[in-house]
Amino acid sequence: xxxxxxxxxxxxxxxxxxxxxxxxxxxxxxxxxxxxxxxxxxxxxxxxxxxxxxxxxxxxxxxxxxxxxxxxxxxxxxxxxxxxxxxxxxxxxxxxxxxxxxxxxxxxxxxxxxxxxxxxxxxxxxxxxxxxxxxxxxxxxxxxxxxxxxxxxxxxxxxxxxxxxxxxxxxxxxxxxxxxxxxxxxxxxxxxxxxxxxxxxxxxxxxxxxxxxxxxxxxxxxxxxxxxxxxxxxxxxxxxxxxxxxxxxxxxxxxxxxxxxxxxxxxxxxxxxxxxxxxxxxxxxxxxxxxx
Length: 292
Fold this sequence. Notes:
single chain; eleven-stranded mixed β-sheet; about 10% helix; globular; MbnP-like_dom; Copper-binding protein MbnP-like domain-containing protein
């Protein structure tokens, strides 16, 4: 039995216990589109067949190129959430207030893994979201970029998600270590064999530049439609496979590309974002008192 299967079994056991012990299921199938319910997307980070662990030198991960690596940092923005019904009608979560529409997921903070919004009652067969920060918001004044979008939060070398020199957000920050990186590798003067992938680029303000904004679309019909009702919460549980950073549509070597920032090659890594997200299950009818 692989670790991924064990991971999924644990998730399903937890869901079953939550359902049996504490969940109060929606009693009526009636839908009132004038009412809203709580809707959330849960981002559960994995690395291939294993759960995400930081600096796990005893059992490093291995990518498709056979390169061993450990992870030290994972952070990414989620925004522009939309839900769609079977009839094609769609609802886009308003972009304001910022605190209720833009989210920053920290791999080392389980509490940040939920993007919680309000949507009209309905049965939704599809959800989409942007991995990154849209160009419109990226070019607004600082008074419109508060909360997780505050450019002054953190510093560039650690938790910061903004390039002051480039006036743009880092959509996805993924860092770690690998023995395949040579000591004299350009971009790693520390000698600690670090890799850093800081991916951003919203298309440019006055002139066209890199555009690495990616819209992720998830079909909910196979693993659970989101049944949103007032007074309850529907939670879409996604697995986020960080191994796909290396092994997605484009497969690349850490040794050859240990540090990718605002460069042409960043587009290949951004393309791999589309392969990272998998819908595992949906929890419907969760009361506000229940914790997911």
